[in-house]
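Write out the 3D structure for:
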Amino acid sequence: MKQYRPEIDGLRGLAVVFVVLYHSGLPYITGGFVGVDIFFVISGYLISSIIISDLESNSFIFKNFYERRARRILPALYFMLAIVFAVVCIVQPPGDLISSTESLLSAVLFSSNIYFWRTTNYFSEASEFQPF
């Protein structure tokens, strides 16, 4: 097992700060994309190190790798989707529930990029109000 790396947690925190500040709407705060990029680099590094470690010990199996990832990520994803959808049902106007339900379904099916590509673009005003 890999040794704990506190500096990686620090970089994760920095990435979250960039993204939260970007979405806060403050003027001249444009670092949200930097935060996302930091997260992608960290994820790539950690996933690559897991794969390399397993390959070096001749224990890498695709099925096991994806099963571990799913067990780690899916419970949090489904919990957050359920909470956000409950809030959406309370606060959104009924006319917006159809598009929110469609975007929820695309999130569950891991096809959000395709859904939003077909319905909007990342910079449009509509995407700011899409909770999923």
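The chain has a mean pLDDT of 88.
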